[in-house]
Amino acid sequence: MRRLLKRGFVWVLLSPLAVSIAGCNKKRVQVQPLPVPIVVTRTAEDVPPPQIDAKPETPPPAELVIPPFNPPPRPPRRSTTQPAVPELEPEATESKPTTPRVAPRLSPAEADDLKEKTWLAINTAEKNLESSKGRIRTAAQQDLEGKVHAFLAQAREAIAVSDWARASNLAEKALVLSRELLSFL
């Protein structure tokens, strides 16, 4: 057994030595020799004399014909004018049901509180907008001012249909945004 271990140990030591001595087996490219050029000399007797014509026949120059450019058709533009709406009879418009709005039923005391709260928020938001007038604004501040105006308009629409809960909510949003606008300026 010891003998086998000694042989294995010797092989382990000698195999890297054998590989390093042998080197890598590279593929060698064989180079083909260049062909030898053949030189041919001609004598004056071998070359026929050039023929000279009185009228040289040259083809007419080719004409370049460019077909006209036809761009692909564009899709039709939407018109900015409203299409004509046919007149409906008055009976047909009256029979059309209105879209019902879901609004909470409020007691008279709750409705009065909401009315007061709504008008107070609308008036305060308008005062805030008025006090910020004439100042230079960034694009974000102008956008904020537009949102305040939009909320106020929606609040007034809700007041017109006596939806005081919605009107109060929209007026509060306008008030918060108007205060934020004032804090920037």
Summarize the structure.
The protein is mostly helical.
List the helices and strands and how they pair.
Blueprint: H1 2-22, H2 90-95, H3 108-131, H4 139-160, H5 164-184
How would you describe the overall organization of this protein?
Helix content is 51%, strand content 0%. The radius of gyration is 49 Å and the shape is elongated. It starts with a helix and ends with a helix. Helix 3 runs antiparallel to helix 4 (139-160), helix 3 (108-131) packs parallel to helix 5 and helix 4 (139-160) packs antiparallel against helix 5 (164-184). By secondary structure, it is an all-alpha fold. The protein has a domain at 108-184. The protein has helices at 2-22, 90-95, 108-131, 139-160, 164-184.
> What is the total tally of β strands?
0
Report the span from N to C terminus. Answer: 96 Å
Proportion of helical residues: 40-55%
Enumerate how many helices there are, as a single number. 5
Strand content is under 5%
Q: Overall mean pLDDT score? A: 76
| CA-based shape | elongated
Backbone structural class:
mainly alpha
| Unreliable runs | none
Radius of gyration: 49 Å
- Major sheet summary line: none
